[in-house]
């Protein structure tokens, strides 16, 4: 490229270059005497204090830091370990040179023997029948032994019950030749829920007997006052000695047994006989002449 001729006396203006940092035009060195920039140009090129912090290139590669260049690591790796020996656990010499190693004794393995299959023995029908018969006989003996033991225990319990459950009613003195005929114990025989009812029926029987005794005494007094009352006196004696034990045996003892054993038959007998007893009470309460009632 050739320079364009300029007229004489024309001042040469140096070309300007745009600074990439400050975005200002910088005059070129060409055409400047001595190749130096003007003072204004140098002042423009000098960086300001605010731009000093942008000297480093943010797009430059970061400095690689080697972690193995740490002084503590390099000191250990460069130190010689002369007191340690290389140990190979797979060599024979290592076992000899390492006296601290404990060797585990190896137990000798017994030579394996081939398995021998025992021939299966098939049982004959006769042997099966004999074995079954022997088992049945053993079971029969065991059952007989258990049955004998149960009989013995039952007999012992029966003897104990006979000795313990001695008849205590009626309570008669020991010198009396007549012994008690019945056993009665509300706490032992009757459940707790029915003891009160059973005792009330017992007291009712006692009231019935006492009423018959009073009737006998009234007929006796009437017979003493009037000799024509002998029939009533005789019948009052009969009612007393007949109805007193019959009422005890016919309706009191059935209800006692019914509460003790929860027997429906005894309950049925009690209701039938006790209904008849109530009917007799009603007839005697009327006071029919000649019936032994006063």
From TrEMBL:
GO BP of this protein: protein transport
Keyword line: Coiled coil, Membrane, Transmembrane, Transmembrane helix, Transport
Positions of transmembrane segments: 202-225, 231-252, 264-284
A Pfam family it matches: SCAMP
Topology within the bilayer: Multi-pass membrane protein
Region (Disordered): 1-61, 80-107
Subcellular location: Membrane
InterPro entries per the UniProt record, alphabetical: SCAMP (IPR007273)
Bias kind Polar residues: ranges: 90-103
An example Gene Ontology CC term for this record: trans-Golgi network membrane
Coiled-coil stretches noted in the UniProt entry, renumbered to this chain: 133-167
Family: Belongs to the SCAMP family.
Name of protein: Secretory carrier-associated membrane protein
